[in-house]
Amino acid sequence: MNPTTEFAGAFQVIAMDQRNAGGRSRAPITSQDSWDSYTADHIAVLDHLGIEQCHLYGQCIGGPFILNLIQAQPQRIVSAGLAQPIGRVEAALPPRTERFNMWANTLTDHPEVSEQVLDAFCQNLYGPGFAYCVDRAFVSETEASPCR
């Protein structure tokens, strides 16, 4: 499903160009970057566009992005759809995944990136477990209804 075409008939659709994920958005990568860094990006875009409330839809990594935005600014979110969100059931963070390492290998134009920065960044994103940016208690307390 492509939400930019599926929802365009009824909504103004804003698609995310996640920084440093292969699109046009770039920024330095630091050992302090986390889900909150991306949430700040999302809030800045909404503020810049003057959007006070919105509906959110996200697939895969979009799930944690949405959950963190709901946690940060719940008054802004009218509804949210999470399709196959990423997360982790087991408690321990495994070593950096092959997918993370493949992404890291594309960062040849980021001289600020070292193995130490990458390890910290990976831990900040994937260390917390479950939905990565919020805990099980937050998710279970978030009002939800099944899709129809």
Automatic annotation (TrEMBL):
**Which residue range or ranges hold the AB hydrolase-1 domain?**
10-85
Pfam families, per database record? Abhydrolase_1 (PF00561)
| InterPro entries, alphabetized | AB_hydrolase_1, AB_hydrolase_fold
**Name of the molecule in the record:** AB hydrolase-1 domain-containing protein
